[in-house]
Please model this.
Amino acid sequence: MASMKTTLSMISLALAAAAACAQTPKLEPLPLSLPKPLFEGTPQNLKVPNLEKPTGKMRPAFLAPSGTLNVARGNLFQAVLRRLR
Model:
């Protein structure tokens, strides 16, 4: 019986230590450079139940863990389209 109590107390101590070590990362706003909106053609009348209406306000900052870098910036990419068989 004493060994079971010891085992349970060790497990609870390990869980408490793991919870103390697990920290949420510090979030910072990630600067985004978005292209200028461009509207071409005839606008369609979209009646979709989950479509958000434009607010006219700036969108909130995108938060990412501190130290996050955009590894795609400045790199060239090439898309290859293949037909799936």
About this structure: The longest helix spans residues 2-21.
